[in-house]
Design brief:
By secondary structure, the protein is of the alpha/beta class. β8 and β9 form a beta hairpin. Bound molecules: adenine (ADE). The site of adenine has 11 residues, from β5.
Length: about 220
């Protein structure tokens, strides 16, 4: 079983997406366990504060270093070989290769921040900083959920057919999938490419390869 942990102030964020479709089945079948750790449980002091204003002034609040580092320590205690990933817009860019790299590990811990970000000293306690893309989310939770979803569907036995994950877009570096069609044959005057109805498997494979090549080229240009 693969062990995923999420350090968050909002564990309830994950209830619904983990209770749907493929992640739900993967958890029920024991392919993955996802445990949320509430960062607030590690706050000290009368008010259990997890945020504070930045030194030097400026708008917004930062997550305090102590409760975050204590929550990371708890995650490492529960899963000593866990790879701790901090979600931040300034981290390494997430992609399919990263998802494949993560599922090869015993366990992953995703650290989600809120407010304007983390106290920079948190960086010394994580193994990696990861970004979903060049935009700012209101917290790390939606990014962590995307990472979880991308990983879970790649775990052995999770997808119906073992080929599905192998044939995914991006499994081969920089390559995207070919276009897919299902019934009806004609929709709003748009027809399914006739080769797909030909029954000629060699021709179909050649067409798909060429379409994937063209789309990958287009995808690269628009990136
Ligand atoms: N937290 C806020 N924005 C983020 C992003 N783009 N990726 C990962 N974590 C984030």
């Amino acid at each position: 079983m693969f062990f995923a942990q999420v350090l968050t102030l909002f564990p309830e964020f994950f209830d619904s997406p983990l209770n749907c479709s493929i992640p739900k089945r993967a958890i029920a079948d024991g392919a993955v366990a996802v445990d949320c750790i509430q960062i607030r449980d590690f706050a000290t002091g009368k008010h259990k504060n997890v945020d504070d204003s930045p030194y030097g002034g400026g708008p917004g609040m930062l997550m305090k270093v102590e409760p975050v580092v204590a929550a990371i320590a708890e995650a490492r205690k529960r899963q000593p070989n866990t790879h701790v990933v901090m979600l931040t817009p300034t981290g390494n860019k997430f992609n399919q290769a990263k998802a494949l790299e993560y599922i090869d590990k015993e366990s992953i811990t995703l650290l989600c921040g809120r407010y304007e970000g983390f106290d920079e000293r948190v960086v010394d306690y994580v193994d990696e900083e990861l970004s979903l893309g060049d935009y700012v989310l209101s917290g790390g939770e939606p990014a962590a959920m995307c990472v979880l979803d991308a990983m879970i569907r790649l775990l052995p036995g999770v997808l119906g057919s073992p080929e599905s994950a192998v044939l995914d877009s991006f499994t081969e570096e920089g390559m995207v999938d070919w276009p897919h069609y299902t019934r009806p044959e004609v929709f709003d005057g748009k027809v399914v490419p006739p080769v797909l109805l030909s029954g000629d498997h060699a021709k179909i494979e050649a067409w798909r390869k060429e379409q994937a090549r063209l789309r990958s080229k287009k995808h690269k240009v628009s990136r």
